[in-house]
Amino acid sequence: MKKYLLTIGFTIATIAFSQNIQIVPLGVYGGSNESNLSSYLIAEESTNNYLALDAGTIYSGINKAIENGTFNEDQNKILRDYIKGYFISHGHLDHLSGMIINSPEDSNKPIYGISETISVLKNKYFTNDAWANFANEGESPILNKYYYKNAEIGTPFTIEGTNFTGTIYELSHVNPLKSSAILVENDSNAVLYFGDTGADRIEETKNLTTIWKAITPKIKSGKLKTLMLEVSFSNSQPEKLLFGHLTPKLINEELGELGKQVGKNKLKGLTIIVTHIKPKGDNEEKIKEELLKYNPYKINYIFPKQGEKIVLK
Ligand SMILES: [Zn+2]
Ligand SMILES: [Zn+2]
């Protein structure tokens, strides 16, 4: 009986403590400051089994997280053991340079991405001219540290070393350049992370509409409550000069589209973690002000800080 109760107690504890999702930003900006570029570690709250969502900055971000008391381990252990793999949204340097530079010290792990991203890594960065081939395909000598996991669009797959399932969707980042988003979920919660993306209207694509339709059931059921979405420029940026990025105005335009699918009321209380702000002049302040001032769907906006953990309830 005692043993039986112990088992029940343990099971309840596991259910109660393992399901919330935590995010540790290693880098939050979309340019300029090379010590703080797009990278977010995501794990279940009670574990240290993280997937890195992009990898613009790794080393400086881990150090900042240690400084802040988010991590209590040495730098190398976090890089090698905590990070179980990388999702790289697209081939731009501000999303992957931290991974390349730290590859000599890293351990064996998968890199998830769409075929376009993997081919950039294979043909442009993990080459003898640019660095060395730390991956498992491409130029010789092949060092076989990272292994490419080419994800099929819209098909769920297991994220190794975690309890998460991932589903990758295509984005447009100055049509026809492709970027991607990943839905990360466990049994009870989900987070949708977007790489760089333009709005459907500007890009003349239907990628975001496709995603809104795909995630509608998960928003309606309450499983998906958090989007990590880029807002690179303020509303003053001319639409001709967006280079495949979003503004507060375009976020609201796209939320309107999502609202058509799920119903406006279901958007209320949705959390958006704002990523990829370009830290130039007063751009950051302007973006924050514009998002908070005109917030017709009552979104809970979070502006992440490097090294500061966010727990999603
Ligand atoms: Zn970027
Ligand atoms: Zn980009």
Automatic annotation (TrEMBL):
Keyword Hydrolase: yes
Pfam families listed in its UniProt record: PDEase_II (PF02112)
Keywords, sorted A to Z: cAMP, Hydrolase
CDD domains given in the database record: class_II_PDE_MBL-fold (cd07735)
GO annotation terms (biological process): cAMP catabolic process; negative regulation of glucose mediated signaling pathway
InterPro entries linked to this entry: cAMP-PdiesteraseII_CS, Pdiesterase2, RibonucZ/Hydroxyglut_hydro
Hydrolase recorded as keyword: yes
GO molecular function: 3',5'-cyclic-AMP phosphodiesterase activity; 3',5'-cyclic-GMP phosphodiesterase activity
Family indicated by similarity: Belongs to the cyclic nucleotide phosphodiesterase class-II family.
Name of protein: 3',5'-cyclic-nucleotide phosphodiesterase
Organism of origin: Empedobacter tilapiae
Lineage of source species: Bacteria, Pseudomonadati, Bacteroidota, Flavobacteriia, Flavobacteriales
